[in-house]
């Protein structure tokens, strides 16, 4: 099956790569329409998540928000594919990292950092654009794809920018391997955990929600500072990345405090622009 799907994927990558950005976003409008109105991709999940979060929203507002959610989903999907053929200049221009003073100070002192973000706006470009704009080594954790050929293509696209990808199944080993090298370990931390037993339970968008224990665990074990990576869409196809410090000395904080601070930041960002979060994933499938 992988041998059949891989050529089509490569062909699609080349097609998107040849399209100028205005035409790509025109295509994205069509993809968005088909995902929402024809295929109804996870439409029930999206609507249920939104209705439980924005209970006072009327039907007209809800329909408009759903439309924008699918537009964001389609944009991020095509932008992720476009990343295979984008140049260094395009990444720097379209995914600008606003570098704070503390980042430079940590690098000069040889200190690594854990960067936490969420599935909001274009998180896909972050691991590549950061390598072009910051002094730290960039290492992003990811879940390997079942198609090994496409997985290799994804790895290649990150390596060429200087970014390293590491499997989430080797998280502890990866932290150990990169000790001594000033590194930013990027972790998308708003996925639903596999088990509720180790999860941190925090109020998120008005509901008690299970959060991954990994980012806090590794921050404490290594005593690495933790920063929140806030990605905002300036306009279609252009983003700014703002970095803020969540915890200077994780080992000095009460258990669960780092997660609570992360969730508070993420909650505020989603509330301010709800259309740009990934509402299509089953975020609340676990209950205490």
Number of helices: 11
Cα(first) to Cα(last) distance is 39 Å
Strand content bin: 15-25%
Order of helices and strands: HHHHHEHEHEHEHEEEHEEH
Low-confidence stretches: none
Shape category: globular
What is the strand arrangement across the widest sheet?
Answer: 1-9-8-2-5-3-4
* SS-based class: alpha/beta
State Rg.
19 Å
Largest sheet, strands/sense/barrel? 7 strands, mixed
Number of domains: 2
Q: Count the strands?
A: 9
Description:
With 288 residues, this protein is of the alpha/beta class. The chain folds into 2 domains: 85 residues, no CATH class; 185 residues, no CATH class. The protein is 48% helix and 19% strand. It has 11 helices and 9 strands. It has a 7-stranded mixed β-sheet with strand order 1-9-8-2-5-3-4, with helices on both faces. The chain is globular and about 50 Å long. It starts with a helix and ends in a 16-residue tail after the last helix.
Keywords:
single chain; 288 residues; alpha/beta; 7-stranded mixed beta sheet; two-stranded antiparallel sheet; 19% strand
In a few lines, what is going on in this structure?
The chain is α/β, with parallel strands linked by helices. Helix content is 48%, strand content 19%.
């Amino acid at each position: 099956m992988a041998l059949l799907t891989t050529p089509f994927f490569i062909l699609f990558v080349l097609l998107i790569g040849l399209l100028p950005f205005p035409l790509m976003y025109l295509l994205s409008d069509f993809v968005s329409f088909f995902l929402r109105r024809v295929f109804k991709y996870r439409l029930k999940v999206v609507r249920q998540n939104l209705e439980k979060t924005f209970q006072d929203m009327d039907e007209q507002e809800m329909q408009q928000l759903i439309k924008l959610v699918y537009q964001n989903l389609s944009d991020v999907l095509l932008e992720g594919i476009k990343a295979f053929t984008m140049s260094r200049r395009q990444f720097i221009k379209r995914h600008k990292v606003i570098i704070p003073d503390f980042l430079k100070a940590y690098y000069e002192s040889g200190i690594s950092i854990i960067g936490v973000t969420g599935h909001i706006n274009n998180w896909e470009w972050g691991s590549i654009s950061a390598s072009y704009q910051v002094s730290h080594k960039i290492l992003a954790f990811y879940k390997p794809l079942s198609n090994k050929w496409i997985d290799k293509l994804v790895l290649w696209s990150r390596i060429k920018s200087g970014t390293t990808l590491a499997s989430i199944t080797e998280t502890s080993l990866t932290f150990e391997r990169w000790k001594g090298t000033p590194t930013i370990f990027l972790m998308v931390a708003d996925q639903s955990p596999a088990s509720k037993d180790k999860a941190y339970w925090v109020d998120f968008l008005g509901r008690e929600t299970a959060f991954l224990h990994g980012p806090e665990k590794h921050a404490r074990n290594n005593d690495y500072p933790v920063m929140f990576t806030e990605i905002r869409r300036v306009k279609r196809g252009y983003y700014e990345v703002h970095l803020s410090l969540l915890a200077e000395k994780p080992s000095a904080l009460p258990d669960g405090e780092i997660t609570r601070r992360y969730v508070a930041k993420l909650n505020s960002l989603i509330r301010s622009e709800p259309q740009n979060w990934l509402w299509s994933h089953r975020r609340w499938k676990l209950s205490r």
